């Protein structure tokens, strides 16, 4: 396993579009690093530059201390898994997995052993003689990962590998990928626009926005202490309540934020009597999710707050309530940066 270092990496197209203006990033050896950000922010471009599939306009890429900036993809010791993982339909699972070694003209015994090992890790052993059309989406995705594993790369690159799968399969594959990472311990760089994948799988999350890094760190560090309003709004579902204007000024900042799970709702009357409840609000809509409920409450001249409440809720649409943020869970930003607590 190798670390990956990007220094001053830039990408501009001849059309004059600059996608990545200059980026520094350190990916520790053996880490599971997730690059996350909205569509078009440059995630795939960055990953493809690490893979050598896209030329760089400036800067340096080091893998395991070796400068690979201008090396061919095959010489970089990486393997990449894409969203659309074209398997060869006429080949068996075993032949598909072994394909990179077959074209490298490795001896048959070595190929068989490598395929068997990858199939064990991915629990594909019983499917080796099937063709791709007789597999589920998740099984096909595992074959594509197997094809990467047999190359024994020091760095795995994944570009939205789960986005073609349905929600329950995605959840299952998240767990399997995390297991795979624990088993083989290789460095993995994983691109997604799905913040749930980022939060659940990463050792390190790198939040990208318009080609620059907003913040990098462990999932819970970013969740607890987002450095910018962008990160605050991007990580967490439902999104953090973020307000500018009067409310923010009252709270002593330019942008004020509090997560839906950190707002308490008090039925009007009891809150006032006990001196709690900061903002009078009217319930606009309630989404019952079962285990919990998402409540939308309008605060006059401020906007709509999203509140995560317990599932068994006795509130009604139109009801007057009071909302209070939990102390220690408020976020204040000034000049686009987090204010010290
Ligand atoms: N040949 C090109 N010329 C100019 N701009 C390009 C070219 N190829 C890609 N881009 C732009 O580069 C930006 C980054 O693209 P990229 O594919 O890296 O985004 P992404 O973060 O992977 O998005 P998604 O989540 O949609 O996959 C986009 O705004 C895209 O329009
Ligand atoms: Mg992409």
TrEMBL record:
SMART domains: AAA. One of its GO terms (molecular function) is ATP binding. Gene3D superfamilies: 2.40.50.100, Nucleic acid-binding proteins, P-loop containing nucleotide triphosphate hydrolases. InterPro entries: AAA+_ATPase, ABC_transporter-like_ATP-bd, ABC_transporter-like_CS, ABC_transpr_MalK-like, ABC_transpr_MalK/UgpC-like, Mo/tungstate-bd_C_term_dom, NA-bd_OB-fold, P-loop_NTPase. SUPFAM superfamilies: MOP-like (SSF50331), P-loop containing nucleoside triphosphate hydrolases (SSF52540). Signal peptide: none annotated. It comes from the Bacteria. Keywords: ATP-binding, Cell membrane, Membrane, Nucleotide-binding, Transport. Residues 4-235 form the ABC transporter domain. PANTHER family: MALTODEXTRIN IMPORT ATP-BINDING PROTEIN MSMX, MALTOSE_MALTODEXTRIN IMPORT ATP-BINDING PROTEIN MALK. This is ATP-binding cassette domain-containing protein. It comes from Leptothrix discophora.
């Amino acid at each position: 396993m190798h670390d990956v270092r990007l220094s001053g990496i830039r990408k501009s197209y001849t059309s004059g579009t600059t996608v990545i203006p200059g980026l520094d990033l350190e990916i520790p050896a053996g880490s599971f690093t997730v690059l996350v950000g909205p569509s078009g922010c440059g995630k795939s471009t960055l990953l493809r530059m690490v893979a050598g599939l896209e030329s760089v306009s400036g800067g340096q890429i080091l893998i395991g201390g070796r400068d690979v900036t201008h090396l061919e993809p095959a010489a970089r010791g990486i393997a990449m898994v894409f969203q659309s993982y074209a398997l060869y339909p006429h080949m068996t699972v075993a032949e598909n997995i072994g394909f990179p070694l077959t074209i490298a003209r490795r001896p048959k015994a070595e190929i068989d052993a490598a395929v068997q090992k990858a199939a064990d890790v991915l629990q594909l052993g019983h499917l080796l003689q099937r063709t791709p059309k007789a597999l589920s989406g998740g099984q096909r995705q595992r074959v594509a990962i197997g094809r990467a594993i047999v190359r024994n790369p020091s760095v795995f690159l994944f570009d939205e590998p789960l986005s073609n799968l349905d929600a329950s399969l995605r959840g299952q594959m998240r767990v399997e990928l995390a297991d795979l990472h624990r088993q083989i311990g290789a460095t993995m760089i994983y691109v997604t626009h799905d913040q749930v994948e980022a939060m659940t799988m990463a050792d390190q999350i790198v939040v990208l926005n318009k080609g620059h890094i907003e913040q990098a760190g462990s999932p819970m560090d970013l969740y607890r202490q987002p450095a910018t309003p962008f990160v605050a709004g991007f990580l967490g579902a439902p999104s953090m309540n973020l307000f500018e204007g009067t409310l923010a000024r009252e709270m002593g900042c330019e942008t004020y934020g509090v997560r839906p799970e950190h707002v308490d709702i008090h039925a009007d009357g009891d809150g006032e009597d006990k001196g709690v409840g900061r903002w009078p609000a009217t319930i606009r809509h309630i989404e019952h999710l079962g285990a919990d409920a998402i409540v939308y409450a309008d605060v006059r001249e401020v906007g709509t707050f999203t509140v995560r409440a317990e599932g068994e809720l006795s509130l009604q649409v139109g009801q007057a309530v009071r909302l209070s943020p939990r102390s220690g869970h408020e976020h204040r930003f000034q000049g686009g940066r987090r204010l010290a607590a």
